[in-house]
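Title: Prediction job returns without error message
Component: structure pipeline
Severity: low
Priority: P3
Assignee: unassigned

Description:
Job completed but the reporter wants confirmation the result is attached to the right record. Sequence as submitted:
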Amino acid sequence: MKTSQQVLKHHYAKLMVLNQIKHSNVPFIPSLKPFDFSLDREVALAVIKQHKGKALKILHENWRNDRELVLKAISNDAFASGEYVGKVLRRDRNFVKELVQVKNNWVLLKDMDEDFRQDEEICRAALDCNPRAIKYVLNQYLLNNREYMLKIVSQCGILLEYVGYSLKNNREINLAALKQTPKAFQFVGNVLFKDEEISSFSTLDNSIELRIKSISGKELRFFADPNNTFNMIRWRVAEEWNIGNEFRIIHNSKVMSMEDDEKTLQELEINSNSKLVMVFRLVGG
């Protein structure tokens, strides 16, 4: 049983800790031996009040699994990360569904378990909160649902990039995206390039037309923003031809290196006149 003197010391120590937290620029819980305040709820709340989502990184696992505290920490924090949400909560379907519906928290879908990113109800909740959540949706039914994807691209045309494979060349969806923003032209399905109405949007966008040939004679044609990274082009090739990452692209007789992946097409001087060839990389090459 604590003596009155011990209680008083603990009280003043806690006041000092709360004061330090209030004036701190980084999330932390001061150590004042022999007292340990890492399991003190009031202290945890003080860190959250001061640092919002960043607080989760240093809080005890008990608090990272506390539904109320976690929601308080990341609500309306556009920079919050789901990485530090406790393991118990991350496996709680109801919590995840509630989490992705909070303003700005749709982005946390990316940090959730793959099972939840495939869960139709959770994905719908995130998408209804913000259509940009489509970047992290793995539910193929939704991604290939014509009516639902039409709704998404009508709100934000650039999200045409993420619609399901079966809808890549759907005229109605592509046209809706282009009418929302001509910038969606870089993600238009290859089959639709000959469509007169759709191709007319190319003049409204600053996209450049790229043609990539394979040594087997295949040719891939698509449009890209000059500010796109070269890695995005590699991703497009891998997706369209359904191949892995074991390939290289030759640009005007030069093999593009891995260091080039993060450079923009403009930096690499890649344009509509560039000769691009895809070759498979030799093992060790």
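Comment from assignee: result matches the submitted record. The CA atoms of residues 75 and 102 lie 6 Å apart.
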